[in-house]
Amino acid sequence: MNKFFLAATAAVMAAGVAMPAAAAINARQIEQRNSIDAGVRSGTISAHEARVLRQEQDLITRAKLRMKSAHGGHMSAGDKKKIHDMQDAAARHIGRFKHNTAHGKKHIL
Q1: Mean pLDDT for each consecutive 10-residue tract of the chain (109 residues)?
Q2: Residues 55, 98: Cα–Cα separation, whole Å
Q3: Burial 74-90 (b: 16+ CB within 10 A, else e)
Q4: Which of 27, 38, 65, 67 could disulfide-pair with 79, CB 3.0 to 4.6 Å?
């Protein structure tokens, strides 16, 4: 099942330019959540770290929904940039937690 989501995400990401911004954002969110889950399964991300990272993903999703509702269901170029910046930061946090050596300790993003 997880391989299906990974393949679907890869297909959506490969579509690139033809994809609406919201779809690209959604695909990246799915990819990041899958990365968090993979880290938990492999033991490189602790339960606490996963909770922090998932909360960050939820924050990004809520921000996207707020931005879309403020502009009649569409996202402005500035909104897209803010979301992409948030996703870039989340990707750095996921990588940092996957490669730290202090599993299970509380970390601040």
Answers
A1: 58 56 89 96 94 97 94 92 97 93 57
A2: 16
A3: ebeeebbebbeebbeeb
A4: 67
Does residue 47 sit within a domain? yes
Please say whether the beta carbons of 68 and 74 come within 8 A.
yes
Do 32 and 60 form a contact (C-beta atoms < 8 A)? Answer: no
pLDDT tens, position by position, 14-23: 544 556 777 8
In this prediction the pTM is: 0.73
- Domain for residue 59, yes or no? yes
Task: State the residue range of the domain holding 71.
Answer: 2-98
